[in-house]
Amino acid sequence: MTTALAARTRAWRPAPGNVLPLLIAVALVLTAIAYPLSSGAARDTVSWTIVVLGSLLSVVHAGLSRGVRTAAGVLALVTATAIAFESIGLATGFPYGTYRYSDALGPTLLGVPFLVPLAWLMMAWPSWVLADRLARPVRTALRRPGRVVWAAAIFAAWDVVLDPQMVQAGYWTWTYPQPGLPGIDTVPLTNLGGWLLAGLVLMALLDLLVTRTAIPDDARISDAAPLLVLGWMTLGGALAHAGWLGLPGSAAWGAALAVPVLVVLVLQHRAAAGRR
User: Fold this and answer.
1) How many helices and strands in the chain, by DSSP H and E?
2) Most exposed: 1, 194, 203, 223, by fewest CB within 10 Å?
3) Torsion angle in degrees (nearest 10) through CA of 43, 173, 193, 58
4) d(Cα 124, Cα 62) in Å, to the nearest integer?
C-alpha cells in the first residue's frame, strides 16, 4: 500500500522542467488579480509586472519546451515585428487606425514604448501554443495554415479584451474610436482588423521559426503554464471588466470569443479519450 501511495504521489508531481514556467504563470495570475484592486501609480506598477512576467514566461517556456534556439528566435522575431508594426502604425495610422501612447508607458524606441513589444511577446507565444493544440487533429496538409489562422485569431481576440482596459488606464488613446464593436465605444474596428493582419504575419513567421528550430516532440514539457496565463488573462480579464472595471462590453466579448475555443478543446478531449 505504501509503495502504491508513493507511486501515485510521484505521478502527481510536475516534471522538473514544468516547475519554473508554472511558478511564473502563478505569479502572473496573482499579480493580475491585483490590477482591478489597485489604482494610480500602484496600478501602473502592476501593469508593468504583468507584462514582464508574461514575456519572461513566453521565453522560458519556449526554451524549455522547444529549445534555446526557438526561445532566442521567438524573442527576436516578436520584438522586431512588434516594433515594425507599431512604429508604422504610429506614423501612418495603418493598419490599426490613428492612436498615440501616453508618457505613462515610459521610454520608447521609434515612438514605441519598450513595454509594448514585451506585451506582444506575452500574447504571441501562448496564442501560438494554443493554436498548435487546436490544429493537431487537422490533416497534415492543412495543419500549418490552420495553426497560423487559429493563432492570429486568438492573438486578435486577446486584444479585444485588453485594449479597452488599457485605454481606460490612459496608456493610449484613439483619435477616431468609432465605429467599434457593439458595447465597446473606445476602440475602433480598424484596430481589430489591424491585429488580425499583424497576427497573420507574425504567426506565419513564428510558425516557420518553430518548425525549423524546435527540438523533437519527446523533449517537450507541458504547455500548461502559457495556457493558464492565456485562459486567465482572457476569461479572468472579462470577469474583472464586468465586476470591477466597469467595462461590460469587453467583458461580454471576451466571454463570447472564448466559447468557441473551449468547445473545440472539449470536443478534442472527448475524441482523444474515446481513442484510448
Assistant:
1) 10, 4
2) 1
3) -30
4) 11
Contact 233, 158 (CB under 8 A): yes
Residues 6+ away with beta carbon under 8 Å from 266:
none
The C-alpha atoms of residue 32 and residue 27 are separated, in whole angstroms, by 9
| DSSP state, residue 103 | G
Given a contact cutoff of 8 angstroms between Cβ atoms, the answer to whether 241 and 250 are in contact is yes
Can you list the positions of beta strands (E) in the chain?
A: 99-101, 108-109, 112-113, 172-174
Query: 3-state DSSP call for residue 112?
Result: strand
Cα first-last separation, the chain:
27
Q: Nearest 5°: phi and psi at 97?
A: 115, 175
Query: Helix 224-231 to helix 40-66 angle, to the nearest 10 degrees?
Result: 150
Residue given cell 514585451 in the structure block: 118
Q: Report yes or no: 118 and 52 within 8 Å, Cβ to Cβ.
A: yes
C-alpha cell at 147: 495553426
pTM confidence score: 0.91
CB 96 within 8 A of CB 89: yes
Contact in structure between 131 and 150 (CB atoms under 8 Å): yes
Which residues sit opposite 101 in a β-bridge? 172
Per-residue pLDDT of the chain (276 residues; tens, 9 = 90+): 444 434 443 433 456 778 999 999 999 999 999 999 999 999 999 999 999 999 999 999 999 999 999 999 999 999 999 999 999 999 999 999 999 999 999 899 999 999 999 999 999 999 999 999 999 888 888 999 999 999 999 999 999 999 999 999 999 999 999 999 999 999 999 999 999 999 999 999 999 999 999 987 655 789 999 999 999 998 899 999 999 999 999 999 999 998 888 888 887 877 777 776
Annotated domain spans of the chain: 17-216+223-275
